[in-house]
Write a structure and sequence with these properties.
This protein is α/β, with parallel strands linked by helices. The protein contains 13 helices and twelve strands. It binds nicotinamide-adenine-dinucleotide, 3-isopropylmalic acid and manganese (II) ion. Manganese (II) ion binds next to α10. Belongs to the isocitrate and isopropylmalate dehydrogenases family. LeuB type 1 subfamily.
Length: 358
Amino acid sequence: MANKKILVVPGDGIGKEVTAVGKLVLDAIAQKYHHQFSYDTALIGHVAIEATGTPLPDESLTKMKQSDAVLFGAVGHPKYDNDPTAKVRPEQGLLKMRKELGLYANIRPIKLFDELLDASSIKPEILKGADILFFRELTGDIYFGEKGRKNNGNTAFDVAEYSRYEIERIARKAFEAARTRRKKLCSVDKANVIETSRLWREVVQQVALDYPDVTVEHQFVDATAMLLIKEPTRFDVVVTANLFGDILTDEASQIAGSMGMLASASIGDGTGVYEPIHGSAHDITGKGVANPLASILSVALMLDISFGLTTESNAVIAAVDAVLKAGYRTRDIANSSTQAANIVGTEQMGQLVLAYLK
Ligand code: NAD
Ligand code: IPM
Ligand code: MN
């Protein structure tokens, strides 16, 4: 029996709606497999700014550090998206959480459930068999370098920085994962132009010497963006820098059918954070239509990676698969041939997964 302290951090927008469902799935797993999961919650993002004036209060950070795992939703609010001059922003909370918890590896699996072959705008024959594991570096790059204005505010700059050590540790994680899969690693950079990318390529080439069983390919990010759509099945494990990884995985979500399908694990040396890759989606907030499967699949990653509960993790994935096989779809993964009666909302989708789990 596992005894775990889980911190639920819903954040903003649909973050609240989807983590509520994720938590129900954790409850069902605890009940079925006789584990003891205890929960607490913490504020982050816009809701934290409203309540405390800061996007990641110290109290939230302390709770995160004291938990066995964090189930995170999303942050963001249109108020800040449309005000480039705002000094305090929800996203700062997310970045601070990643930095303070040392979450340098963001693992984003792009796995297409067979039943969703026709949910994507990409042709089924191109998609069939696509299964990519992204390793996005998460605590460096242009996100965390010095930023500011000069020239009386008329010039802006963001410094991109990477150290050898930062590149090496994410590269090693990706190589280790490739070893357990199809033994192919694609390292994505822009070494033809950018200095941090040149260091990136140099370090990955060096690390590769320790993994002679893994075939390594180096690609420029612009080509990767194209190849992901042209031939997604050519990829196995992909490792890349923070900004490139952010952009490429939103693109790759279309291989899996929707942003609402993509889960992620953010890991480092301490508490792991499990989060959908999508944002607070204010266009659909409060409508009860958000796809909760990304949050549910993030729970599956938590059970596996942080708790080592692989049977339980596989049971969650199998339940999702069963619900999709039965034909149920949230709006984002439905298509013109989906029967109207099979189009369900956030809570209903959650209940269906729970029913298959039990
Ligand atoms: P978004 O991911 O919130 O939404 C993009 C599109 O995908 C929207 O049309 C949305 O409705 C759809 N979508 C996203 N998740 C879905 C789900 N579960 N089910 C169905 N449809 C879904 O990205 P955005 O619109 O560019 O950003 C909105 C806000 O979220 C911004 O403030 C941004 O900073 C923030 N954001 C936060 C995170 C995070 O917290 N990890 C990630 C991305 C964006
Ligand atoms: C993500 C988001 C964040 C990122 C933003 C909201 C800071 O897009 O989690 O993918 O860029 O990392
Ligand atoms: Mn993103």
